[in-house]
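Might you be able to check the backbone structure tokens below? Thank you kindly.
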Amino acid sequence: MSKPGDVVAVVLAAGLSRRYGNGDKLLHPLGGRPLCLHIAATLRRLPFSRRVAVCSNPAVAQLFEAEGFAVVRNADPQIGLGSSLRIAVQAAGNASPILVCLADMPFVTPTHLLALAHAFQAGSADPVASAGPDFIGPPAIFSAGLLEHLPANGEGGARALLRGATTMEAAPRELADFDTRAALEAASAGDLDPSLQP
């Protein structure tokens, strides 16, 4: 079992918002604050050793900095998710374990993130991932050593790392991510944790 205080929490926030249209989806308002600040607020409440955000948009980077995150820049986000993960490992100083969260998943709860941390076996190479119907993915906890072997280009390598992972169930709504403007406009702020409302 790992302790939250041993975990470095990383938010991947360098996506290109290709399906969103004009603008950056992470800045789209949801429940009175930009989409990306929901996971930031959740992580800020938890006793992780460090909080890091990998960003490409300076406006998004400023928001995470204001929340007390160490921000590192991904200058080539078009390469793929693997590039952000490699940057995250470097920013974490090769610390282990690393909790990887996505900036477009606003409904993840503190309870679920703590469950992931407690399920990770200290010193293990086996990741712990979130699971829902037909889904295994982030938030997930990896050893830094495992992520170091991830190719910088593409996303397939990241999915491959989760094969055989220990999984922690979460409600489908909790694992929802948002890619389009229409989906964000249809999302209900009522699904957010009231204590995280601005």
Remarks:
- The chain has one domain: 4-187.
